[in-house]
Amino acid sequence: MSSALDEAIEAVIVGGVSVRQAAENFEIGRTTLHRHLEKADIGPPGRRTKFMAEEELVICDLLLRCAEIGIPLSKFHLKKSSTDYARTRRCLIKPSLMDGTERS
Length: 104
Prior knowledge:
The chain is mostly helical. The chain contains six helices and no strands. It has two domains: 4-38; 53-99, no CATH class.
């Protein structure tokens, strides 16, 4: 089953319905529909992730192992573990991630 967005795109392309009318009929934003019609390779919503899925699993496994053996972890420890992992894997870390502050 296709989503309302997919159906709206099909209505515009195949059915000759206007973007405004398709957006109304399928209850989606006109701007969203127009953007998807103009650019077919729209990625998933949100920002790009810092880690690939496999890397996230490695970090999650580490955190779960710590929880299983009773090591308490704070937000600081999560950031530090993630930063250390990224540094060893890619060396592409902003200095601001190390101390938890954002620098302009």
